[in-house]
Amino acid sequence: MLKDIFIGLSQNQFLNNAAKKYGLKMGAQSVVAGTNIDEVIKSIKELNAHGISCTVDNLGEFVFKEEEATEAKEQILKVIEAIHEHNVDAHISLKPTQLGLDIEYSFCLSNLREIVDRANNYGIFVNVDMEDTGHLQPTFDVLDELSKEYDNVGTVIQAYLLRADEYLEKYKNFRMRIVKGAYKEPAEYAYQNKKDIDANFIKLIEWHLVNGKFTSIATHDHNVINHVKEFVKKNNIPNEQFEFQMLYGFRKDMQLQLAKEGYNFCTYVPFGNDWYGYFMRRLAERPQNLNLVAKQVLNKKTNTIIGIAAGAFLLGRLTKSANKKRR
């Protein structure tokens, strides 16, 4: 139920637009690394100083116009230039829908090719993120096309997908981020039970650590992290073959500790005013994340806003249900 609430909130364009007006005043500055490139570069430098690399996400939602997608592309190109100019340890994460996948496939591919080409010139990696299953195959198609020309691209496999192991094997020669998944998907495409998702998550991580190119393990769960530590030790997998990833602002002490222990660590660094959908999906992905950020993010104002939003969403659901019963 709680996951459904946050997924519903993430897809609410009205609330997304309202959040933009507040910017980071709502407390999101603890989980979003600034609103502009200068601020995000400063955040990256601070993390680099602790031996932590970064993957940078220029946040953006609900892109259905070419000018919006072009604007997003230009911003990402500027981020790439800034990473090169400041010589920071960072790469790019991006979502195809932000670059026009919902507008036209060839338009999106052209935008992505320009970004990957610019990044390739500087030796910067680009991770093509996965979204919901409606965009799954087109995203794989984009990845297939780009990989014909470039080797600085990778992607994400979501453990809740029933065919995740097939996708992982097909793309085993790509740098791969493995996640549990943050969208609500029907049973015909995805596991619905948390235990099944967790078990598949471990299964995919282990398989790719043994058979894949490079594995990014995206989790805040210390049980998973401890399991991976034991697995790589038992199977003589060098640290150079994998990294742990966490979101900016989450479990900061653990991020620092893992880097201090000598593990490769990468922080997912989002920036921009369009943070709302991203934040709601993180809460949907793992409701326990709400506890992780409660002290550092959710002040009284934020609690009130999220509470009102959640209440509005639930009221809408109840109203729909009541109307159906009347019919």
UniProtKB/TrEMBL annotation:
Residues 41-291 form the Proline dehydrogenase domain. InterPro entries: FAD-linked_oxidoreductase-like (IPR029041), PRODH_bac_arc (IPR008219), Proline_DH_dom (IPR002872), Proline_oxidase (IPR015659). Keywords: FAD, Flavoprotein, Nucleotide-binding, Oxidoreductase, Proline metabolism. Its cofactor is FAD. It is an enzyme of class 1 (oxidoreductase). Pathway: Amino-acid degradation; L-proline degradation into L-glutamate; L-glutamate from L-proline: step 1/2. It catalyses: L-proline + a quinone = (S)-1-pyrroline-5-carboxylate + a quinol + H(+). Its EC number is 1.5.5.2. This is proline dehydrogenase. It comes from Neobacillus driksii. The lineage of its organism: Bacteria, Bacillati, Bacillota, Bacilli, Bacillales.
